[in-house]
Recover the amino acids of this structure.
């Protein structure tokens, strides 16, 4: 099996119709893949993936008249692996810093999983830099916190987050047997059909990216903060800060069969949005709707981003 890969750039700068480059922001260097011209749409990946998870959406957004940019979050893919800085407030500043470094006045943020959590956060912390918000497979951070602490079914569905709290063992498990666990998680979290998110070739790419030194540790650190800070002053302050309403139009996408983030947990996030809010549930899809059915998924944000007045 021949996998797409640039000849001299390792496992993360994969070839395609996009252009790779690095930008400096918030004291670190971030790898991006970009296509197209127009208003900026910044795509934010989740766990256990990297920028390549948006390979289907980049050309669609570019063709629709947007400047589509997929970035690697801090510690993942081609971005810097710093010793600290994995709390959501700092990671959100990474995102808004990249917007500024790209020379844009603002961006529409499209975030999946952890990238969605950070997109919610950035919209609250730096609302002037966020034009619109698209979140997939992740509730608002306050909703996430409440569901994980008070809903046993959601706590069990997100058991991997609790497992990440152990020292060193999760990192070892992620990279064991050539990162076999990465493939297992993607298969388990995907819906029954179609299977694009969990085909062997895609999984091989994600496994290879996780094996880049320090990636496993850096991928886990945001989840460690999310749990360990629950009773700490920094976590309480962050939760209080997220009481501020989201004041940008928001499109919330979710797979009906997502086994990691229950529909019930995500669906109440609209209470934190004081702007047009649209909820879209994809029947039969799991935790990776943008890869499981890229055509259906891509249609939603493209149409919504082009709508000058999205309704509530």
């Amino acid at each position: 099996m021949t996998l797409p890969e640039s000849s001299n750039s390792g496992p993360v700068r994969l070839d395609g119709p996009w252009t790779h480059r690095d930008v400096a922001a918030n004291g670190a260097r971030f790898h991006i893949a970009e296509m197209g011209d127009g208003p900026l749409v910044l795509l934010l990946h989740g766990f256990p993936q990297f920028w390549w998870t948006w390979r289907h959406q980049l050309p669609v957004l570019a063709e629709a008249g947007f400047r589509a940019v997929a970035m690697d979050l801090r510690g993942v893919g081609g971005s810097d692996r710093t010793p600290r800085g994995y709390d959501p407030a700092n990671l959100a500043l990474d995102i808004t810093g990249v917007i500024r470094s790209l020379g844009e006045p603002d961006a529409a943020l499209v975030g999946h999983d952890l990238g969605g959590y950070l997109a919610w956060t950035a919209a609250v912390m730096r609302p002037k830099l966020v034009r619109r918000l698209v979140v997939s497979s992740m509730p608002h951070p306050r909703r996430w916190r409440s569901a994980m602490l008070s809903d046993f079914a959601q706590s069990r569905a997100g058991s991997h987050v609790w497992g990440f709290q152990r020292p060193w063992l999760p990192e070892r498990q992620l990279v064991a047997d050539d990162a076999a666990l990465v493939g297992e998680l993607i298969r388990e979290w995907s819906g029954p059909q179609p299977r694009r998110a969990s085909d062997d070739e895609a999984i091989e790419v994600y496994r290879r990216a996780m094996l880049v030194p320090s990636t496993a540790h850096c991928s886990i650190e945001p989840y460690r903060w999310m749990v360990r800070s629950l009773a700490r002053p920094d976590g309480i302050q962050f939760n209080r800060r997220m009481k501020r309403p989201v004041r940008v139009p928001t499109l919330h996408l979710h797979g009906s069969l997502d086994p990691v983030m229950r529909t019930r947990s995500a669906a109440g996030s609209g209470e934190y949005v004081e702007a047009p809010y649209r909820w879209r549930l994809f029947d039969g899809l799991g935790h990776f709707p943008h890869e499981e059915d890229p055509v259906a998924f891509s249609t939603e944000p493209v149409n919504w981003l082009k709508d000058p007045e999205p309704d509530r």
User: Anything to note?
Assistant: The longest helix spans residues 169-189. Residues 1-8 have pLDDT under 50 and may be disordered. The radius of gyration is 18 Å. The chain has 13 helices and eight strands.
